[in-house]
Amino acid sequence: MNQPTPVDLERFARLLGSQVVAARKIARGYTPAERWVVSLADGRSAFCKVGANQNTADWLHKERAVYEGLRAQGASFLPELLGFDPDPSRPILALEDLSGASWPPPWTPERVEAVRATLDQVHALRLPVPAIGFMGEAFEGWSQVGADPGPFLGLGLAGEGWLEGALPTLLAAQEEVSLAGEALLHLDVRSDNLCLRDGRALLIDWNHACLGNPEVDLGFWLPSLAAEGGPLPDAVLPDRGPLAALISGFFAARAGLPVIPHAPRVREIQQVQLAVALPWAARALGLPPLGDLAR
Ligand SMILES: Nc1ncnc2c1ncn2[C@@H]1O[C@H](COP(=O)(O)OP(=O)(O)OP(=O)(O)O)[C@@H](O)[C@H]1O
Ligand SMILES: [Mg+2]
Question: pTM here?
Answer without folding.
Answer: 0.95
